[in-house]
Amino acid sequence: MKKPNTLNNIRIVLSHTSHPGNIGAAARAMKTMGLENLYLVNPKAFPDPVADARAAGASDVLENTRVCATLDEALAGTVLAVAVTARRRDLSHEMLSAHQAASRMLALAPQGAVALLFGTEMSGLSNAELDKCQLLATIPANPEFTSLNLASAVQILAYELRMAFLGEAEVPAAKALEAASFEDVERFYQHLERTMIDTGFLDPACPGRLMQRLRRLFARARPEKEEVSILRGVLTSVEKFTNKSKNP
């Protein structure tokens, strides 16, 4: 039985890329490892002849690139989003090496699209962008000089993804529970925030970092689709009880 190509479910997402040459070089890096789905979030210049020149044989990847206005649009329909970062951050999600992250992504790819997110060349990813992801991946570079060119970082992660794909055992996988989609999880966060405001637990005038902490808590838990539905059912029950108390 032929092994399905789970690499087809991997998205490489570049956020606010400033130099078109890096887009072309990233496309080339992807194609050499069998990846084809490139998403760009508000690139400074694309399409661009510099990107075409740097792609060097991967023009098909550029031609099929999807340009998105927001990160939410780029992550729509995914069941996992992994952010690539060199920096340790407080309140962080689980941090994996590039090798570990590739294995985790390939394990979920049969269930749906999986995104690998890279930030800008100068400042990387913002905390708001990290909060849209469930895992962090890092390249274990020289601690005294961790700066990697964007396309080089894409090449390393693409290589790890290909090696994870080639190393998958050709045995029938156990039936997995359905993963929650990006949209499912975002609707849950909106529902949770609304309920906390209605019950007085969260003051919208002074929210602090409560939602950020809760996002990262649930990102570590990785709730499945059915579990997200249960959580939203609990919130709905709280809303009904609150409304009944207000209007006896």
Low-confidence regions: none
CATH superfamily of the largest domain: SPOUT methyltransferase, trefoil knot domain
Q: What is the mean pLDDT?
A: 90
Task: Give the name of the CATH architecture of the largest domain.
Answer: 3-Layer(aba) Sandwich
Strand coverage percent: 5-15%
Q: Quick one: CATH class of the largest domain?
A: Alpha Beta
As a percent range, the share of helical residues equals 40-55%
Mind summarizing the main beta sheet?
Answer: 7 strands, parallel
Shape by Cα distribution: elongated
Number of domains: 2
User: What's the Cα radius of gyration?
Assistant: 20 Å
CATH topology of the largest domain: Alpha/beta knot
The first-to-last residue Cα distance is 63 Å
Please provide the ordered H/E string of secondary-structure elements.
EHEHHEHEEHEHEHHHH
Task: Trace the largest sheet across and list its strands.
Answer: 3-2-1-6-4-7-5
Structural class call reads alpha/beta
Q: How many beta strands in the DSSP annotation?
A: 7
Number of H/I helices: 10
